[in-house]
């Protein structure tokens, strides 16, 4: 054993709480606590869940040219991102494929904070250094900072007890504040479809902050298992599963994330890698697209399952799938040929050699409850 | 107290008075799987030892339940369709999976007994 898994600053806390630990993106991470995935999921939807997402990469860009430089790598409006706001983005490659998805926050003072996926963070850093390293300062905070997510309808109640100002934030706002005396960056955002916060904290104070939050009566520790079922119900993509270098934002049904100003008819059209491919697909329609799928039986349909039509012709593949505790039934996302993307189209997944009937459905599967003020 | 037998795949078996054998998964197995959300039960037919007779789906993953011996499945637990969580709540009781008639009734006694199974779990835990 001991293949040198990386540890987050909360590793000892996870073990103390009785977590079942697994390898994820090279890290030793809690997949669930003694509560179990189902109850952890439901607790987050009903009260508040605390997630350790410190494996994700935080990168600070600094300099007057940082926003303009970052725009050359993402199809998103960064130049006009207001101070104190966060926005979803993705790095594209020369064919419009997605290298990673990320959050970008404007801290003011010519500083942008990026949060990227754990499995991609070293490649992302190299990508940034290669393409915009001469235009701004790029500082990885991988060891320096931890990241906690507090999610659920009572996240505001719990966090506002320690930092009253956070109650006034709205969805995707970003601020620098003290929580119980600890200097943090807080955004009102998350990966569950619920209201909640993501908290960037100095690594050496993360354990103290997590314990302080867990002491609040609404808050329970939640593992990666429930994080996955929560984000799936929210219709949110998991990089490496629901999108990758072979899928464009159009195919991944992420057109909404391409800022209007960066589209073919926008004031700052294109100027990101693979723009011409993305625009061509937007114009003529992608040959395959990501859709929501609801199995019509109790059988969960998992990632990798083939999708067929009534004649057993293969028309797609499931990219994420499982059981939704809030939905009370199985659910999935998959890539299907363009002819099968309309709502309510009947399709079938092949599970253990049998056809499981499914319907193409809208996403999210569970209505989001972001706080928009 | 019935005489339970076990497999290395964490199934339990109990010989019934009518010559059938009841099969389920152990408390250790259900704990490792986590919350069970669906059980695909076997058909009423003969299976070879080692064949995947049933599948148990937890929130996270699907796992096979293998036929412990050659035999014919004669009954499945109808309660698991509506209440798959019985596998977690009462794995050695109401959460049973199926009953089968073994081709060789004596083969049941050659499977792991409680002591041998407990040692296996202990060894797994220490590995």
From TrEMBL, chain A:
<dbReference type="GO" id="GO:0005960">
    <property type="term" value="C:glycine cleavage complex"/>
</dbReference>
<dbReference type="GO" id="GO:0006546">
    <property type="term" value="P:glycine catabolic process"/>
</dbReference>
<dbReference type="InterPro" id="IPR028896">
    <property type="entry name" value="GcvT/YgfZ/DmdA"/>
</dbReference>
<keyword id="KW-0489">Methyltransferase</keyword>
<keyword id="KW-0032">Aminotransferase</keyword>
<dbReference type="InterPro" id="IPR029043">
    <property type="entry name" value="GcvT/YgfZ_C"/>
</dbReference>
<feature type="binding site">
    <location>
        <position position="198"/>
    </location>
    <ligand>
        <name>substrate</name>
    </ligand>
</feature>
<dbReference type="GO" id="GO:0008168">
    <property type="term" value="F:methyltransferase activity"/>
</dbReference>
<dbReference type="GO" id="GO:0004047">
    <property type="term" value="F:aminomethyltransferase activity"/>
</dbReference>
<dbReference type="GO" id="GO:0008483">
    <property type="term" value="F:transaminase activity"/>
</dbReference>
<protein>
    <recommendedName>
        <fullName>aminomethyltransferase</fullName>
        <ecNumber>2.1.2.10</ecNumber>
    </recommendedName>
</protein>
<dbReference type="GO" id="GO:0032259">
    <property type="term" value="P:methylation"/>
</dbReference>
<dbReference type="Pfam" id="PF01571">
    <property type="entry name" value="GCV_T"/>
</dbReference>
<dbReference type="InterPro" id="IPR027266">
    <property type="entry name" value="TrmE/GcvT-like"/>
</dbReference>
<feature type="domain" description="Aminomethyltransferase C-terminal">
    <location>
        <begin position="288"/>
        <end position="366"/>
    </location>
</feature>
<dbReference type="InterPro" id="IPR013977">
    <property type="entry name" value="GcvT_C"/>
</dbReference>
<dbReference type="InterPro" id="IPR006223">
    <property type="entry name" value="GcvT"/>
</dbReference>
<comment type="similarity">
    <text>Belongs to the GcvT family.</text>
</comment>
<dbReference type="Pfam" id="PF08669">
    <property type="entry name" value="GCV_T_C"/>
</dbReference>
<feature type="domain" description="GCVT N-terminal">
    <location>
        <begin position="12"/>
        <end position="260"/>
    </location>
</feature>
<dbReference type="InterPro" id="IPR006222">
    <property type="entry name" value="GCVT_N"/>
</dbReference>
<keyword id="KW-0808">Transferase</keyword>
Automatic annotation (TrEMBL), chain B:
<protein>
    <recommendedName>
        <fullName>Glycine cleavage system H protein</fullName>
    </recommendedName>
</protein>
<dbReference type="InterPro" id="IPR000089">
    <property type="entry name" value="Biotin_lipoyl"/>
</dbReference>
<feature type="modified residue" description="N6-lipoyllysine">
    <location>
        <position position="60"/>
    </location>
</feature>
<dbReference type="InterPro" id="IPR002930">
    <property type="entry name" value="GCV_H"/>
</dbReference>
<dbReference type="GO" id="GO:0019464">
    <property type="term" value="P:glycine decarboxylation via glycine cleavage system"/>
</dbReference>
<keyword id="KW-0450">Lipoyl</keyword>
<dbReference type="InterPro" id="IPR017453">
    <property type="entry name" value="GCV_H_sub"/>
</dbReference>
<dbReference type="Pfam" id="PF01597">
    <property type="entry name" value="GCV_H"/>
</dbReference>
<dbReference type="GO" id="GO:0005960">
    <property type="term" value="C:glycine cleavage complex"/>
</dbReference>
<dbReference type="GO" id="GO:0009249">
    <property type="term" value="P:protein lipoylation"/>
</dbReference>
<feature type="domain" description="Lipoyl-binding">
    <location>
        <begin position="20"/>
        <end position="101"/>
    </location>
</feature>
<dbReference type="InterPro" id="IPR011053">
    <property type="entry name" value="Single_hybrid_motif"/>
</dbReference>
<dbReference type="InterPro" id="IPR033753">
    <property type="entry name" value="GCV_H/Fam206"/>
</dbReference>
<comment type="subunit">
    <text>The glycine cleavage system is composed of four proteins: P, T, L and H.</text>
</comment>
<dbReference type="GO" id="GO:0005829">
    <property type="term" value="C:cytosol"/>
</dbReference>
<comment type="similarity">
    <text>Belongs to the GcvH family.</text>
</comment>
<comment type="function">
    <text>The glycine cleavage system catalyzes the degradation of glycine. The H protein shuttles the methylamine group of glycine from the P protein to the T protein.</text>
</comment>
């Amino acid at each position: 054993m001991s293949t040198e898994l990386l540890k987050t600053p909360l590793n000892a806390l996870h073990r103390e709480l009785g977590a079942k630990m697994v390898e994820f993106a090279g890290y030793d991470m809690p997949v669930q606590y003694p509560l179990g995935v189902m109850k952890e999921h439901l607790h987050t939807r009903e009260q508040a869940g605390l997630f350790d997402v410190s494996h994700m990469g935080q990168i600070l860009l600094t300099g007057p040219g940082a926003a303009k430089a970052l725009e050359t790598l993402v199809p998103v409006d960064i130049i006009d991102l207001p101070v104190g706001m966060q926005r979803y983005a993705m790095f594209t490659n020369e064919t419009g494929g997605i290298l990673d998805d990320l959050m970008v926050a404007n801290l003011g003072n010519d500083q942008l904070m990026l949060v990227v996926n754990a499995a991609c963070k070293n490649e992302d850093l190299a990508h940034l250094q290669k393409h915009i390293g001469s235009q701004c300062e790029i500082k990885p905070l991988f060891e320096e900072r931890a990241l906690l997510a507090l999610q659920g309808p009572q996240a505001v109640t719990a966090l506002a007890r320690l930092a009253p100002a956070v109650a006034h934030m709205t969805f995707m706002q970003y601020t620098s504040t003290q929580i119980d005396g600890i200097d943090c960056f807080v955004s009102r955002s998350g990966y569950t479809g619920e209201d909640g916060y993501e908290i960037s904290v100095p690594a050496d104070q993360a354990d103290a902050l997590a314990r302080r939050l867990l002491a609040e009566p609404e808050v329970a520790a939640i593992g990666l298992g429930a994080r996955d079922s929560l984000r799936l119900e929210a219709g949110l993509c998991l990089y490496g599963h629901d999108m990758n270098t072979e899928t464009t934002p159009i195919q991944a049904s992420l057109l909404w994330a391409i800022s209007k100003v960066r589209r073919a008819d926008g004031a700052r059209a294109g100027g990101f890698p693979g723009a011409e491919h993305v625009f061509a697909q937007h114009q003529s329609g992608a040959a395959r697209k990501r859709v929501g799928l609801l199995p019509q039986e109790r059988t969960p349909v998992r990632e990798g399952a083939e999708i067929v039509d009534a004649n057993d012709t293969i028309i797609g593949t499931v990219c994420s799938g499982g059981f939704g505790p809030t939905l009370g039934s199985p659910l999935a996302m998959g890539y299907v040929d363009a002819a099968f993307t309309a709502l309510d189209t009947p399709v079938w997944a092949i599970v253990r050699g049998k056809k499981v009937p499914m319907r193409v459905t809208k996403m999210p599967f569970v209505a989001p409850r972001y706080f928009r003020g | 107290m019935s005489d339970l037998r076990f497999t290395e795949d964490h199934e339990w078996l109990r010989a019934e008075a009518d010559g059938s054998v009841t099969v389920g998964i152990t408390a250790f197995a259900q704990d490792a799987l986590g919350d069970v959300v669906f059980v695909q039960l076997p058909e009423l037919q003969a299976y070879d030892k080692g064949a995947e007779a049933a599948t148990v789906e937890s929130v996270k993953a699907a796992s096979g339940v293998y036929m412990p011996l050659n035999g014919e499945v004669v009954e499945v637990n109808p309660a698991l369709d509506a209440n798959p969580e019985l596998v977690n709540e009462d794995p050695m009781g109401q959460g049973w999976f199926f009953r089968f008639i073994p081709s060789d009734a004596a083969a049941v006694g050659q499977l792991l007994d409680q002591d041998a199974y407990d040692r296996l779990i202990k060894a797994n835990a220490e590995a």
